[in-house]
Amino acid sequence: MTVLLEALCTDAADPQALARFWAGVIGGQVAHDRPGAVTLVPEDPRCVPLRFRHSDAPRTGPNRYHLHVTTTSAEDMAATVAHVLELGGEHLDVGQTPQEGHVVLADPDGTELSVHPAR
């Protein structure tokens, strides 16, 4: 049996806006391929598509997942953080320390994301 991960699906107050945000972060095309959902198909075929499904349910706590974005250098990391903030992301304090070497942010819906330096 072959199983493929088709997309990472999450609820969103405004799926279209969240798809545009993530398209600005990782690149890709926004598709309306499911009723009530918007899918971001990344430019890089190694990346999993992100699907945003409309929900009016209030968030009751942090998500049980967050996305990691990698960069190519310290300068690229700083530029990526600045770009995410320009797109509507926010800094998020989850107890990380400067020694950890990554920056924790949140997308406009409050979902955590981490920007990591080159490995």
Secondary structure blueprint with pairings:
Elements: E1 8-12, H1 15-26, E2 29-34, E3 37-41, E4 50-54, E5 67-70, H2 74-86, E6 90-91, E7 103-106, E8 112-116
Describe the structure.
- With 119 residues, the chain is α/β, with parallel strands linked by helices.
- It folds into 2 domains: 1-54, Signal recognition particle alu RNA binding heterodimer, srp9/1 (2-Layer Sandwich), CATH 3.30.720; 65-119, 2,3-Dihydroxybiphenyl 1,2-Dioxygenase, domain 1 (Roll).
- It is 21% helix and 30% strand.
- It has helices at residues 15-26, 74-86; strands at residues 8-12, 29-34, 37-41, 50-54, 67-70, 90-91, 103-106, 112-116.
- The strands form 2 sheets. A 4-stranded mixed sheet has the order 1-4-3-2, covered by helices on one side. The chain has a 4-stranded mixed sheet with strand order 5-8-7-6, covered by helices on one side.
- The model has no long low-confidence stretch (mean pLDDT 90).
CATH architecture of the largest domain: Roll
DSSP helical segment count:
2
Strand content range? 25-35%
Counting structural domains, the number is: 2
Q: How would you state the average pLDDT, rounded?
A: 90
Distance between the termini: 34 Å
Largest sheet: 4 strands, mixed
Structural class by helix and strand composition: alpha/beta
Unreliably modeled segments: none
**Rounded radius of gyration (Å):** 15 Å
Shape: globular
H/E order of the elements? EHEEEEHEEE
Level of helix content? 10-25%
CATH superfamily of the largest domain: 2,3-Dihydroxybiphenyl 1,2-Dioxygenase, domain 1
CATH class of the largest domain: Alpha Beta
The CATH topology label of the largest domain is 2,3-Dihydroxybiphenyl 1,2-Dioxygenase, domain 1
For the biggest β-sheet, the strand order reads 1-4-3-2
Total number of beta strands: 8
